[in-house]
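INFO worker-7 received task bundle
INFO bundle size: 2
INFO processing item 0
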Amino acid sequence: MTNYPVKPSHRSRLGASSLEAAAREAFGEAERTETGVRAHYGALRNLTAAPVGKLLGVEVEMDPKVDVEVAAETVRRYNRFLESATGYSAKERAKRLRKPASGPGD
């Protein structure tokens, strides 16, 4: 599971109904779970997203046997979902995920 940082202005969007709406917009269909959302699309066999405190926890199961075009579209839609849910672009998320791993003086 990957825990993504969420902008303070987007933390209200961590509810199951808001996550479901973001997943439906990105993937076309989604199912609300007790705490979050479950979806699938293209190379995503299964995506489960739920709030983990002030973070968004996302677990994905990928299908490596899809066409390159399907994989590329899946990545675009996955990034669109994460940007809608967290408020951060792919570049900003990557930077924030690397930040805790950096040591002093980096």
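INFO item 0 finished
INFO processing item 1
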Amino acid sequence: MKKNIFLVVLIMLVFFVISFLTNILGALNDKVSQSFTLNETMAGLLPFAFFIAYGVMSIPFGFLVEKYGEKKMIISAFLLAFAGALGFAQFPTFNVFIVSLFTIGAGMAALQVVINPLLRVSGGEVNYAFNSVMGQLVFGLASFISPQMYTYLVTNIDAGNVSKPFIGLMTSLVPKAMSWVSVYWAFALIAILMVTLISFVRFPKVELQDDEKVGSKDSYLELFKNKYVILYFLGIFAYVGSEQGISYWMSKFLKIYHDVNPDVAGADAVSYFWGLMTIGGMLGLVLMKLYDSKPILRWFTILAMICVAVGLFADVQTSLWSFPMSGFFLSVMFPVIVSLGLNSVPKHHGSFAGILMTGIAGGAIVQLLIGAISDAISLRVGMLFIFVTLGYILSLSFWAKPLVNNQTFTLKSLFTKN
């Protein structure tokens, strides 16, 4: 199939926007808590509302995309994001924010269902692996930039720099002492621009492969009888819970225990977390061609646990780098857990992939638990729950028994013909 370079670039832009809208909550945590006078449990409702949408909507969206097609689903997804962002930007109350986050999360879940099969068809199957890596790099870049945008908007609006481009307009749109709401005006603008752009693009017909189809009711029932399906679902649940548990709470932790400015250094820490995760993912791709994925997962998990421990108990300068560095070691977990899981069942891979994606709800549940523990004891103790989720991932690296191991090569194999 001939490559459609324009469509590949457009898909990369979609990857960028998904990440840009998804990974901002950690930078916002402290400001939102101040604006709405939230305790930690209520603050945990914010990522809960966003990520629970992934858990409940991923499989239904899989059926909808097969029925209505990719273009309609992408437009609908961005319209959901636009409605959620604009609704909150106009009515910035806590209750509206919860609904807004769920709505935006549902839109992002729909995009995640559509985007990978579309990338395979648009870029050609022979280029799919390379394009997938590029998509993850773009995803990471957006996660790095998003908190920086937050810092730019909030610091300039709070400083009254109305002569700067865009700042004067945003200052007039946001309530006093709620400069962070400007982020959602920006999100609404980005989402409607994406709707407009995609409306004019012609999409190719996508024939889903077996591992991309959501499957039948019987396939799900058969899979749920396999204990490894549940165990790998819990693996994704634990991973996203760990990822969000660190990225969402680190800025507030740094403020409470080290008096770090959440709008500048705190936001930078969140930004570096995602940036280092991207770099770690690139290294992980190389390592998985040299070594079996299970020991890689094991050592990266141990090093991530060390980084989190140091971040929780070290001095301010060490914590400012240790928390973000944990992102470097978390980077291999999601792809390794997914590949180990899919390689552990002989059939119904599409249905199993849908089950695994619902595990993203771990980003919702774990934050509520951390928030509740924080209110009962302290945020430091609450964040210790991350060792439970990382501990489960560590156990996975020992008990996983895939039917097929990841292919590796040696220096000798590079010079030996098959």
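INFO item 1 finished
INFO post-check item 1: The two ends are 27 Å apart (CA to CA).
INFO post-check item 1: The mean pLDDT is 87.
INFO worker-7 idle
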